[in-house]
Request: fold
Amino acid sequence: MLVIAFGTALGITGYNIAALAGARRGEEGLASGLINTSRQIVGSIGLAVLLTVANFETSVGTGWLAVHSASATVLGFGYSFLAAALLTRIGIIFAALLKQERHNQAISRSIGQSIAEIEDCQCHRKSSMGPDR
Reply:
């Protein structure tokens, strides 16, 4: 339980810092509210999806109104955990691709600034040398 509490505290803190890093001055409260609202809504939707996945196996194996057997329930929750792992991997891949795209944009921006500085420096050299002879 302590490991879960410690991991959750670190995760939520890092999540909030990353999300609020791009907020403009004066809009931190709005951004924080959106973060917390999205976390609660996504958690509810995620739980509903995972329970739906678990219920597919349970209802198929035992019939719709029949009493659910323990093995069908365990198998259904096993599929639900696999679906959660798949969704987590998709999220990690998406986050890595998004981070890579932002990194590439930052590199392009810095290269553009460097080229502009070099061109500006060359223009100043030509003007300080005087007219061509």
